[in-house]
Amino acid sequence: MKFSELFCPTLREVPAEAETISHQLLLRGGYIRKATAGVYSYLPLANRVLKKIMNIVREEMDRAGGQEILMPIIQPRELWEQSGRWDLYGDEMFRLTDRHNRGFSLGPTHEEIITALVDGDIHSYRDLPLLLYQIQNKYRDEIRPRFGLMRGREFIMKDLYSFDMDDEGMDISYRKMYDAYSRIFSRLGLRFRAVEADSGAIGGNESHEFVVLAENGESEVVYCQACEYAANVEKAACVAANGDNNEAVLEIKKVHTPGQRTIKDLVSFLNLPEDRQVKTLMYMADGKLVAVLVRGDRELNEIKFKNILECNDLFMADEYTVEQICGAGFGSLGPVGLDVPIYADLEVAVLRNFTCGANQDDYHFCNVNPGRDFVPEAYVDIRNAVAGDICPQCGGVLESVRGIEVGHIFKLGTKYSKAMDANFLAANGQALPFVMGCYGIGVSRTMASAVEQNYDENGIIWPLPIAPYQVIIVPVNAKKEEQMQVATEIYHRFLECGVEVLLDDRDERAGVKFKDADLIGIPLRITVGPKSLQENQVEVKKRWEKDIELIDLDKIEDVIIKFLAAK
Ligand code: ATP
Ligand code: MG
Predict the structure, then answer these.
(1) Which one of 428, 482, 503, 541 is at 20 to 30 Å from 205 when CA atoms are compared?
(2) Which superfamily, per CATH, for 253-380?
(3) Which of 79-94 are b and which e, b meaning 16 or more Cβ less than 10 Å from the residue's Cβ?
């Protein structure tokens, strides 16, 4: 491709709306343009990257026994009613009605459609296992579409669904997908981790996330250096350390704390560290007020809390309701004498003589002790894991890294097949529900994640397997006939051997062309300039290295092809 003909509108300025690196660089590099919030057009370079990602995904899905299909984006309301998700899915679902006033969704995911599809045509255990997948746009009306392709309202997903006759079969399908995903993200050239995840609203009992490591990622992952353990912080089990069990229990004491509402306020006011305080948070769980206690330096994990309560609806209570029932506002709450069910984190159980609100505005209790001063419904694991925690598997120390969730695999079991009455006949003639799994990869999010992981101050540094072009040839001065002639000749030689190459034939200053080559992130740059040409040489620069190599003109083809093959 000649750069002069390429639709690649690069920008010098950082667009004001773009907060994250990938969003900025994909806009500046002429990869994407916004149509409306969370909805983007992919320009030619982006389209090439996406196709490369999709090809690798396809190859590995096929290798694992998947068959590619294409299901409808428009999905009838009745199917979602059968699974019970028409109401449960909430505002994230785009909904529409046809001229006859029938309801439809724009597919946010395809469990319903595929369960109905397979139920219609698969009747016998002999036809199982069955692994079907598609690569297609998904639609989710996210509350906060943001960060460009990271959280779109229209985005590209690969989704595979497995159908087995029993749990053992599902376990095998799941393992195949786990391995396929590991191969995919390795082949894409990304640094990633597979971590245990919460299976959340989708149901099922086992789940892993594939997380591309990146400093600015939305997810946090903890992992153990001593063993294999790795989990999303939402999922990671927390073990309480021994705490202050040896400390003598002191007499409870009420102190006046005017205007001191937060943990930080009390740190300075009472000269008390965060981990000697307890936070009391108030939630509405399916309409009932509940209190939850975590140590002052910890964060409540709402997902764990929701799983413990087994409720559908969980949100923070409003201050007015809390004041009516507890007699004090948010800054002065505590478990002593509180007349609502209390759930306390495991760490609270081992604290001695801690400080918390006294359920009276501007007052706190010091020297509060669990058991003596209050008794919770239960001590439960209810906080987010953090670096420095004890590994739940081996007792080692956990580290943490940030990353971006690019893939998610779930064991669904019979959740959808039972709800939708989707059965097959087993060998003994019994009708049994399909045992299912579902496996997603955010293809467009993967592209953004690759940028988020691989860039420098000058632009993107694509991993070779997904770069839109492998090589860019830059004649320093397009007006000089000899330079253009040599550049064009190398260009044609590369095209013949299947090297994916861009020729920057634009009549621009060399500096401008170098800047664009760096910005769009082409891995190898070949510069044809007057100096090196005198020696019959060209300059080769790898995007991720500073140094330039001089290569003889008659060897350039060999050198590049060998390099690409080795990668
Ligand atoms: P998240 O927690 O980020 O909202 P999710 O759990 O809703 O993700 P899944 O339903 O498991 O995501 O979808 C499978 C994959 O699709 C995700 O791993 C992610 O890579 C991608 N994905 C999900 N939502 C979006 C989105 N709004 N924009 C781009 N990609 C997305
Ligand atoms: Mg989501």
Answers:
(1) 428
(2) YbaK/aminoacyl-tRNA synthetase-associated domain (3.90.960.10)
(3) bbebbebbeebeeebb
